[in-house]
Amino acid sequence: MSRPAWVEIDLAALQANYAAAKKAHGGRVFAVLKANAYGHGALACAQALATASPPADAFAVAFVEEALPLRAAGITQPILVLEGAFAADDVQLAAQHQLWLVAHQAQQLQLIEQHAGAPLHIWLKVDSGMHRVGFAPHDIAAAHARLAALPQVEKVSFLTHLARADELDTPAPTEAQLHAFHTATANLAGWRSISNSAAILAWPQAHQDWGRAGIMLYGAAPCASSTALQPVMALKSRIFAQRWLEVGDSLGYGAAFTATQRTRVGLVAMGYADGYPRTTPNGTPVAIDGHLSRTIGRVSMDMMTVDLTDLPGVGLGAEVQLWGPQVDINTIAAANNTIAYELMCHIQRVPRVYR
Ligand SMILES: *Cc1c(COP(=O)(O)O)cnc(C)c1O
């Protein structure tokens, strides 16, 4: 690569975070690899986790097409398809490739009933209060009975998803969801799974047979917790040009920054086309050759500008970390009114470099 813009992926950190998720949750834990492993590269992450110590118990993806490249590359762990089947083909592919399907609505039960073939493991999704997808608690027993009657269904398990597990000072909605889930599934045999990362870290009551770790694997804490996580992704570039602004000079599109003192500006080869958000305000942290500084001026498509005034030793070619071990991605997300998940998923155009 000649343009100095890349994203480093630390696979040892990913493995350590998976071990931390297993330790925090107990039992078994899905490593969630949807959306290309939250922008980290699903195949490389799956291979690293499949050979980690401890190895991943299983993986989870959003839809069937996300699972197929993992199978094609020889990943043998179970893979849970979190949104289940969109069409009959998906059930066929799930049977053929031994994918575990979520079923969250009656149409999916029909697709499963219409399928004749290799044994299926279905995870019934309970809407315990998030009111996005899932069967109402009072419909779970009937849905379970329909599946249990089918020769093509070898096992039925249960999951639910928590809407507010990251809000530690608002426990009541999570407690209500746990209660609704347990009531709906009370007398039914099968594995249970409730916890996303926030619940793995902060809700021991939500720990069941299986946890589902997403964001914590990638080293971004979804809530306050005593579990140490290691950032996996480091978004990096270099200073490729520099200039001085005199007092009163303004910088870039919309003159979003105006110098109130002589200001040395560094141009960084990173823009919103790479996934660094355009909405980033002046003063957002960056690390330059290890020293903390700040963004100034508006982020453009292919480049952005940082303040070098207080870093006289830093010049052309200096390495800039936009987020990673030195700059918490949660800080960048908060400055942009979003969450680390979205920043990670939006990385594009820059090559991934695995460490
Ligand atoms: C994405 C997802 C997860 C993982 O959530 P994190 O907050 O990233 O840990 C777990 N369960 C379901 C159903 C999901 O869609």
TrEMBL record:
Residues that coordinate or bind substrate = R132, M301
Active site: residue positions: K34 (proton acceptor), Y253 (proton acceptor)
Q: Which UniProt keywords apply?
A: Isomerase, Pyridoxal phosphate
Task: Spell out the SUPFAM superfamilies in the cross-references.
Answer: Alanine racemase C-terminal domain-like, PLP-binding barrel
- UniProt pathway annotation: Amino-acid biosynthesis; D-alanine biosynthesis; D-alanine from L-alanine: step 1/1
Name of this protein: Alanine racemase
The record, for Pfam families, names: Ala_racemase_C, Ala_racemase_N
Organism the protein comes from: Comamonas denitrificans
N6-(pyridoxal phosphate)lysine modification, residue list: K34
- Tell me one GO biological process term: D-alanine biosynthetic process
Start and end residues of each Alanine racemase C-terminal domain: 232-355
Judged by the first EC level, this protein's enzyme class is: isomerase
Stored InterPro entries: Ala_racemase, Ala_racemase/Decarboxylase_C, Ala_racemase_C, Ala_racemase_N, Ala_racemase_pyridoxalP-BS, PLP-binding_barrel
Tell me the GO molecular function terms.
alanine racemase activity; pyridoxal phosphate binding
Instruction: Name what cofactor the protein needs.
Output: pyridoxal 5'-phosphate
Could you say which EC number(s) this protein's record lists?
5.1.1.1
Q: What does this protein do?
A: Catalyzes the interconversion of L-alanine and D-alanine. May also act on other amino acids.
Spell out the PANTHER family in the cross-references: ALANINE RACEMASE, ALANINE RACEMASE, CATABOLIC-RELATED
Q: Which NCBIfam families match?
A: alr
